[in-house]
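for the recovery benchmark. tokens below, seq after
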């Protein structure tokens, strides 16, 4: 590890919000403290929508914080800093430009002359392992190669700080691992000009293998909820006992708030709470796996991820959804089948639907509100726009649509209400299938 010094990036009490449809500000980030020192890699983990990418964009100077202080090398940050570069999940390459031209863009924007641009771009391209592909267009490259171009474009400006926003998540597993290992080799070998890295990831093992510190973000609003220092030397063996224990610790930190959330879910009057990105089929598959003799109703999340072949990005929302619905509960990084969850697994399809619908009405305020509103309407139906307008008071447009879509999906499965995709109308189901609220 490089020698740590005074923080390059220093955030104190940073907040950020957006204006909702009713004119009120909804906080996305609140009271965020974060320090990034030379010589360290910090990984930032948290649920989707918790503001991690927003935080990176604030540090990159792409957007401004609403409150608090953002400092780069002790000076207030007002816009993009020359010493900070960012790598995006989507590669963000210009398809009509060659590899060389894409990498040169940042230098051109800074007024570097053509000869120097060409020299430094060629050097960065070679550093990242793409020598010989300078004249290729992005469409001629694999996903891993395109992301290498994105990394070379960030490194060519010789940044103090490299921000990586899900930089490996769009790649297949082997390609992502290879690129991650190459980046770490450059870092450990001192070949990179970068002094510190901040990485947003959904992959817990990736964070443990790369980082000197793991920060766990909470949502609504986003803030640092926990921090785990990692002192193991790199390179780290993903199969070692030490790494597996750290992965377990991070899983426990990531799920620490979910069990309590589920216990009080029915009492919350927050209709616009973020529903986990979890579809019913995968929830049922996870319950069935948990009920198998090998697990006997309890499994630690790393093992469950391996057995189910689910990524952390997919597994954690499923566990939160099952906990929210009372079909399982989270306990220090383990998922436990509840008695109701066991009854659910043992039931036939119709029985499962009834249990699901009952739990939905009891524990998800938005679903209960939609059902109650339909029962009050003379025709027993309302447009989805009615509920979207309600959600937009607290959520942005995309998140409001996502939350309503999830509530409708769950409600249709639990036969709480039905939905006509052609007309956008939500309506009560036929009386013979309507669950008792």
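predicted aa per position
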């Amino acid at each position: 590890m490089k020698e740590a010094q005074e923080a390059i990036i220093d955030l104190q009490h940073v907040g950020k919000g957006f204006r909702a449809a009713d004119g009120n500000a909804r906080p996305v980030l609140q009271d965020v403290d974060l320090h990034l020192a030379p010589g360290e890699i910090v990984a930032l983990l948290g649920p989707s929508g918790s503001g991690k990418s927003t935080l990176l964009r604030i540090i990159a100077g792409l957007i401004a914080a609403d409150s608090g202080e953002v400092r780069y090398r002790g000076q207030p940050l007002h816009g993009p800093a020359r010493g900070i570069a960012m790598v995006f999940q989507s590669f963000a390459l210009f398809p009509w430009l060659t590899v060389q031209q894409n990498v040169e863009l940042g230098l051109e924007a800074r007024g570097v002359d053509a000869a120097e641009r060409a020299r430094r771009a060629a050097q960065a391209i070679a550093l990242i392992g793409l020598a010989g592909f300078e004249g290729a267009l992005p469409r001629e490259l694999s996903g891993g190669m395109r992301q290498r171009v994105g990394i070379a474009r960030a490194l060519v400006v010789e940044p103090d700080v490299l921000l990586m926003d899900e930089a490996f998540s769009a790649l297949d597993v082997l390609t992502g691992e290879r690129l991650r290992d190459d980046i770490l080799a450059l870092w450990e070998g001192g070949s990179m000009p970068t002094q510190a890295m901040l990485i947003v990831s959904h992959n817990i093992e990736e964070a443990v293998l790369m980082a000197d510190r793991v920060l766990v973000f909470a949502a609504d609003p986003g803030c640092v909820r926990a921090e785990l220092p990692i002192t193991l030397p790199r390179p780290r063996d993903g199969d070692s006992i030490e790494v597996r224990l750290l992965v377990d610790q991070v899983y426990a930190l990531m799920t620490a708030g979910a069990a309590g959330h589920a216990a009080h879910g029915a009492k919350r009057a927050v209709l616009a709470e973020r529903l986990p990105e979890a579809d019913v089929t995968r929830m049922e598959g996870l319950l069935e796996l948990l009920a198998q003799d090998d697990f006997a109703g309890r499994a630690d999340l790393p093992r469950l991820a391996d057995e189910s072949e689910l990524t952390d990005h997919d597994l954690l929302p499923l566990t939160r959804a099952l906990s929210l619905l009372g079909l399982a509960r989270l306990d220090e990084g383990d998922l436990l089948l509840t008695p109701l969850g066991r009854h659910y697994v043992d039931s036939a399809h119709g029985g499962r639907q009834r249990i699901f619908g009952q739990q939905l009405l009891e524990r998800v305020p938005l679903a209960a509100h939609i059902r109650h509103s339909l029962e009050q309407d003379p025709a027993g139906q309302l447009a989805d726009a009615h509920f979207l307008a309600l959600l937009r008071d607290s959520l942005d447009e995309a998140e409001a649509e996502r939350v309503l879509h999830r509530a409708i999906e769950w409600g249709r499965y639990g036969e709480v209400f039905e939905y006509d995709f052609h007309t956008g109308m939500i309506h009560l189901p036929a009386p013979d299938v309507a669950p008792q609220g």
